[in-house]
Design brief:
Ppx/GppA phosphatase domain-containing protein; single chain; 59% helix; 66 residues
């Protein structure tokens, strides 16, 4: 993926709808992510729409439930 993004060049990445606002930094972020995955010996990463606040709300619901 990083090779494909790098091969596109900055101006071409700027034309991709999901990358247009991040075209100048997406490659750098990808390199950082790849480095971290290698250092952590992690073969993959998962994305979610939930965050820490969702987890806290679920915890409260389970512990304070009447």
């Amino acid at each position: 993926m990083l090779n494909a993004l790098d091969g596109m060049g900055d101006s071409q990445r700027a034309t991709v709808p999901l990358l247009k606002d991040r075209h100048d930094v997406i490659l750098h972020g990808g390199v950082i992510l790849q480095y971290l995955l290698e250092r952590l010996h992690s073969p993959r990463i998962a994305a979610t729409l939930s965050d820490g606040l969702d987890g806290y709300a679920l915890h409260l619901l389970k512990t304070i439930s009447l």
